[in-house]
Amino acid sequence: MRNLLLLAAVGLALGCGSGKQTPPAPKEVSSPKTVRFDPAALSRLGVRVAPASAPSQSHKLRLPGTLEYNLERYAEVGSLVEGRVLSISARVGDQVKKGQRLGTVIVPSIAQAQAAYVSAVAAAHLAKANAERERALLEKQLTTAREAEVALAEKLKTEADVAAASARLQVLGSGIVADITSIQGPGTLTLVAPIAGVVVRRDAVLGRYLQPSETVFVIADPRVLWASVDVYEADLPYLAVNADTELTIDALPGRLVKGKVSLVEPQVGRETRVLRVRIVVPNDDGALRPGMFVRASLDIRGGQEDGKLLVPSGAVQPLGDGDVVFVEMEAGVYEVRSVRAGRRTSQVAEILEGLAATERIVVDGAFLLRGEVTKQ
Fold first, then answer.
1. pTM
2. What architecture is domain 60-71+221-300?
């Protein structure tokens, strides 16, 4: 027993004298997952890297649409009543002024209304003269008060008949007859241009019988057009009235037209989940035509300027139970970084956590890198 205690004391003394202790086993430290690729191969595949905060085309809404006439400068002209086309003064492509004659229509009902108006005016003149005569005779006590009252009542009745006949002519679209002794062009209705512009459609044919529901002339001002595009409801937070837009036209390669959003319709389609956005497009040289297919690029409201980090939606890839981006560490080396994404559209995604604005990420071709990661 004594020997054992002696050996233990010697061992303790040797340990203290050396000053050295056996180091603990190193802990295994987890590091972010990285993937390596040949930079030249990635370049050939179209993989592109940029700072997360770099503005790009992904910060725009790119939407297809069509050009239309500006309905604020558009008018359809037709007859309010049945009639036959008597003359035509304007052809398709003609420049017309407001109030300019487009054609004339002969309308039997207008002829009848004009005759009734002329008759009513004549009767009113006679009744007025008779009422004045009866009033003068009554002052001289040469007639009775009853006769004067009857004459006054007849005068008032004929004046009402004139007003009714005049209103009927107005309803039929005919002006008031100035000279009751001679009607020029009885029964004719003149079709005039309600706005200045270009005649873009003419359905009027000489001798054709028109119905009140028919449009015979269409006039539009082509100097300002509308572009109508469809926007998905998910993109609405990034859209605002007066947003600047750029349009390209398939029929006019290389031409870039600038416009502004003038209206975002208030209702979303129940089935399509889209709504219409109207863009005002200048067309001073007349090169743009309604019906042309356009591609609109609209500036997104918000982004880095208000503290939101927006990246191309293609840069955020689903992996496992979350989303990741590929952060460039060096040429050909990328960290698979988990991020928390907020609102996203088909073109942009908002990053809430996990990424700094100054870090460089894969903005094009990230799905290729994700495919390689899933194989590992």
1. 0.60
2. Beta Barrel (2.40)
